[in-house]
Amino acid sequence: MNIKPTNFYTIMTKKLLIIAFAGLSSTMAYAADLYVRNGGVGGAYSTVSAAIAAASDGDRIIIQPKTNGTAYVENLIINKSLTFVSETNYNKYIIEGKVTVNPAAGRMVTISSMSLGTSSNNILEASGATSGGRTTINLVNCDLNNVFTYQVNTTTNVTGSTVKGNLIFSHGICTANKTGFISIYSMAPDTVPAVSDIEVYGNVSNAGIQNTQINYNFKFYNNFCTSFNIGNIKAGSSNEIVNNTVYSPTPGDLGPFNISINGATSGNIAIMNNAVSFVVGQTNVCIQNSSTNVNVTASYNLSTNPFITQGNMTQSNNSGAVNMNFDNTAYTVTGMNVNAGNPDVKYTDLDLTRNDVGHYGGSNSWANFWPADNGGKPQVNYLVTPRTVSSGTLTISGSGFSK
Length: 403
Hints:
By secondary structure, the protein is mostly beta strands. It has one helix at 48-54; strands at 16-21, 33-36, 60-63, 76-78, 83-86, 93-94, 99-101, 108-112, 114-115, 123-126, 135-140, 143-144, 146-149, 154-159, 162-169, 173-175, 178-184, 198-201, 204-205, 209-211, 218-221, 224-225, 228-230, 237-242, 245-248, 257-259, 267-272, 275-278, 287-289, 294-299, 302-303, 309-311, 313-316, 324-327, 332-335, 379-384, 396-401.
């Protein structure tokens, strides 16, 4: 039996939702709710900073969007485990300033429905490394400029958000975002490692997706982007670049898949079921592996260009000069990619047909994540299921949110 993510909705109002599927479900509880409203109406706080100062770990700060798109003009320093949400469903509150999360072991900061205005100086950042534990930052349904949370022992989970510039983080789950650029980068080895891999599913990245972190396996699935650049990996790791659409309509210096790792670091990268089209610039190579000790396995990839590879690589069932049409406005790929992916049942599409090459193929299909606002309904943004089940206990876990 093939298990697929489905549209599963749990109705909640103005609450972030965490669902554990083990026969039970639970929602987040908050110690206290603190309100922020324009001018402090009704006894509320007039600034977000004042609410943060008055809050305790575990509190929720509910922020009223100002009328006519007016912002709360302030820089925020978040030094507690807090949750920030909008008082008005499906409306964002605007902060005209910088948001800084100060790290601490066990600290969790969740920010929902925040807009950081138009200035590129209004960044969201983690201020430093976490000692003796990990800091977790959750960003949900936000409109941001640049996110810099690549500090040691920091997990960043981003979903349903727009990041106009750079989204740079060191560990976490990134789903259904529109970004300028996604980079997974580590300044140094994590001293308190997370137990999970890095997962980047169903995103748009206009300047590509890059990995230079050294701490975790990575899984890049069902993204629509211009390229993948791998500048480093965890030693001995197994990594996956599967069912993505890579479309680059302007010439560049590198090809669609570029693996360039200095030194003796070894590991494995599987590149499979990807749809590719690019305008030739400095190279006509689809997959380039210039790393001697990194084993690349490339299979069931399709390209409108001649399928040219370079470097250490095991190949099977790749094809070039394939008739496909790409649209980087509607984020679609059509043509000979249909039913052309790996025929193994574990890569079956949501309609139970053979895998479609590109970002709509397989269980992690783009269709799971988009449209990001599905008629104003709460959404599941992450779901973990086994690909196949033959016997034993079925364990499913996931998370979701309401706007």
